[in-house]
Amino acid sequence: MSGFSTARLKMVDGQVRTNDVTDRRVLDAMLTVPREAFVPVARQALAYLDLDLDVSEGGTKRFLIKPQLTGKLLQAAEIGEGDNVLVVGCATGYLAALTARLARQVTATECDSALAAKAKDACASLANVTCKAAACAEGDPSAAPYDVIILNGAFEVTPEALLGQLKEGGRLVGVSAQSTPPRAMIVTHTHGEFGHRALFDAAAPVLPGLERAAAFVF
């Protein structure tokens, strides 16, 4: 077993399972997808650590969120094999590649065009993934409506445009930093109404374009 394979197994056993992720499909995806393939070569040694990993190379700071939070959000999303899923702020594409093993079709957006290109390359072998450069707050209406929208990060403002792309019965999962402490949240779309339910305390970097407007200071 290679060093990365051993590290991947330790990540799943030590960080993901121990944080109440029991969904076999999610665990299998995380055991299979090589996280190091989505990390700049100079930082690959950090690929399996319990941290939000900076994968940007200049420009806006962009991250792969912590493995345990990734697993918990995927489990909460309850992605079905026939689902059409939008991954928002995919960075280099790791979350999109995991989701591809759970869903029928995945559209992944990334606001940094250079990283979107890397995500496209990293996911090139996955026939059911489309990676695009697009603002995080905009989503991708062309492939909507979605059964599931999953955010690779946090939001400080209500992502109205994303909610508008949810199918009836669909759900959005991400970290709400609209109040303190931040919490993982599931938003469901039922009969034209949106229901919000807090899942667990969690922290993640805020996605570009979903930040709270800076307060004006005299």
From TrEMBL:
One of its GO terms (molecular function) is protein-L-isoaspartate (D-aspartate) O-methyltransferase activity. Keywords: Methyltransferase, Transferase. GO terms for biological process: methylation. The keyword Methyltransferase applies. Pfam families: PCMT (PF01135). Gene3D superfamilies: Vaccinia Virus protein VP39. It comes from the Bacteria. Belongs to the methyltransferase superfamily. L-isoaspartyl/D-aspartyl protein methyltransferase family. This is Protein-L-isoaspartate O-methyltransferase. It comes from Bradyrhizobium japonicum. The lineage of its organism: Bacteria, Pseudomonadati, Pseudomonadota, Alphaproteobacteria, Hyphomicrobiales.
